[in-house]
Amino acid sequence: MKTAVFKDDLFLEHDPGNSHVESPLRLRMIHNRLNEEGKDFYYPKAEPAGEELLALNHSHSHIRRIKATAGKSYSILDPDTCTSRKSYEAACLAAGSVVQGVRMLVNGEINNGFALVRPPGHHAEAEAAMGFCLFNNIAIGAHYALRHLGVEKVLIVDWDLHHGNGTQHSFYDTDQVLYFSTHQYPCFPGSGAVAELGNGKGEGYTLNVPLPGGQGNEEFASIFNELLIPVARSYAPDLVLVSAGFDTYHADPLGSMRVSESGFAYMTRALMDLADQVCGGRLLLALEGGYDIQGISTSVMAVLKELSGNGFLSDSELNRYRNSNVSPSILAKVQKVAENYWKL
Length: 344
What we know:
Elements: E1 3-6, H1 25-37, H2 51-54, H3 60-67, E2 75-78, E3 81-83, H4 87-106, E4 112-115, H5 137-148, E5 154-158, H6 165-170, E6 177-184, E7 206-211, H7 217-235, E8 239-244, H8 261-278, E9 283-287, H9 293-307, H10 315-322, H11 330-338
Parallel strand pairs: 1-4, 4-9, 5-6, 5-8, 6-7, 8-9
Antiparallel strand pairs: 2-3
């Protein structure tokens, strides 16, 4: 397997403040692990996204607002979202890394990949930064694939603790993107109810699984096995993108989920199997949240081991998750809604 890892020290230069939970230390810990264990991965260099690429998902006025923070020691964009001198540069490179990963996947240069980027992206709206996010990296990558690479259908899976409001809104009216989110609800940003299904041509192409908290590996395995994978097989995307947040980790300070490294590994394995079946293995993850410093580093490494074919999961773990019957109560409700649009 040729697994691309997009990493750059510039992402460590985005510093929203000493007390901010989205600190550079999150990524520095992952870099340390990669320095010790990541010699077999492929590390391409990406170019920062220019305004033309950013404008695939964002208004020019929004891009100008973020660009105006460049070189300033501290700017506040909303109560949760702050920037430092190089945040704009880092945000452009984050979006550019996802675009580069998509391009390399579609061109057959890599088997799969993980864009280890900061700042995160899935809360960023077309006109606004929010929730620690400046530009919507995953949405920009999806738009690029659809407009420039001949891709016709994209699946975006968002397993972050928080609902990806920005990504949902970016594709709410289209059938070219199927957006699937698991998230704690109610929780920031307050969106992601079951009834949010898309609009017009996009109706049925947004599926949300709002969870009350306390769900762990087997519940997430059931959601993937019983809902996501059957729907995705029916949709048959040309490309699978993942907003990979690790704030569902059992020790994360912002949530109350109970996912461990094995749970993230299984979700990755399930998506790898899906991608192999429907789109030649085209699978790219982009880092979103995850605020337990130890947990995010060990979980990312578990995901990377799966992506590279080295298998983090034991056979017994894999068998248990593939046959999980521990379903959260909301799953039956979402399945009933999804059956109006998809064969399960």
